[in-house]
Design a protein that fits this description.
195 residues, mainly alpha, 6 helices, 62% helix, globular
């Protein structure tokens, strides 16, 4: 099942999830599902995804004010800038899907309220992960956890969707989140090797 979803490195753990010592998606199974309408269409899915990216960018910008270290501030600024790229990708996907060209500002006007990726609030993420905001590696770990929550949310929303086009878009957005996780993982590996 995982190999069919694009995962190339799969490990069988003796003892199952109880023996797993790393991060897992957290929260109730329906966490964040209120953001998606089960019978919603593909456009609704893209608009919701865009709102999630906006929310995460706002989170990273707000975190810059909470940390003292200049390197960590710069890291949050970089992560916020990356979310703009994610937003641009969703606008591009929308244009490809609908055949209508639309600007970022026009698309963002469709958003009622930005939400955090994964469906949790800033406070919930900080409470759950107890991140040392002055540690660059812990900040990167938090970003990775948020992206993992987002991947999980998009996969659950796709599985729950009644609309085949929305399901296809949600799986495509999930694929984008998977690539974001891979990029962050590579960045973390490079930071750890440099330390």
């Amino acid at each position: 099942m995982l190999a069919g979803r694009g995962f190339t490195k799969i490990y069988n753990l003796t003892g199952g999830i109880k023996s797993w010592g790393k991060e897992v998606a957290i929260g109730p199974e329906d966490s964040g599902m209120h953001l998606f309408v089960r019978s919603g269409n593909a456009e609704d899915a893209m608009v919701t995804g865009f709102g999630l990216e906006m929310g995460l960018r706002d989170f990273y910008i707000s975190m810059q004010e909470k940390v003292a270290g200049e390197e960590t501030k710069a890291l949050f600024a970089k992560l916020a800038d990356i979310e703009i790229l994610h937003q641009e990708r969703l606008v591009q996907l929308y244009s490809e899907f609908t055949g209508r060209q639309i600007t970022m500002s026009e698309f963002s006007a469709k958003i009622v309220k930005p939400a955090m990726e994964g469906g949790l609030t800033t406070e919930e993420y900080l409470q759950r992960y107890h991140t040392d905001l002055d540690s660059e590696l812990e900040v990167l770990g938090l970003a990775m956890a948020i992206e993992a929550q987002a991947l999980d949310l998009y996969m659950r929303a796709a599985a729950d969707s009644d609309n085949s086009e929305a399901k296809k878009v949600l799986l495509q957005i999930a694929g984008e989140e998977r690539s974001h996780i891979a990029s962050l993982s590579h960045f973390i590996d490079n930071r750890q090797e440099a330390a």
